[in-house]
Design a protein that fits this description.
By secondary structure, the protein is mainly beta. 8% of the residues lie in helices and 12% in strands. The structure holds iron/sulfur cluster (SF4) (2 copies).
Amino acid sequence: MAYTIVTETCTVCGSCESECPNKAISHKGRIYSIDPEKCKECEGDYDAPQCGEVCPSGSCIPLAA
Ligand code: SF4
Ligand code: SF4
């Protein structure tokens, strides 16, 4: 399971990119996305997903369906 970024609600603020311990978040053009192969839900690194912790939107980084 991995987290994903909902582009419709992401404001492209950039806060999440540097917080990921696995460098799973990248910026292409005006879209941020999470590589599902690299996202480990922060397990072993933090108690909570760091991308979701710093995201000011609060709702644009759900678990991928
Ligand atoms: S949940 Fe953790 S590992 Fe996954 S993208 Fe967010 S910060 Fe990176
Ligand atoms: S922190 Fe949230 S709003 Fe900011 S770039 Fe990441 S997903 Fe988008």
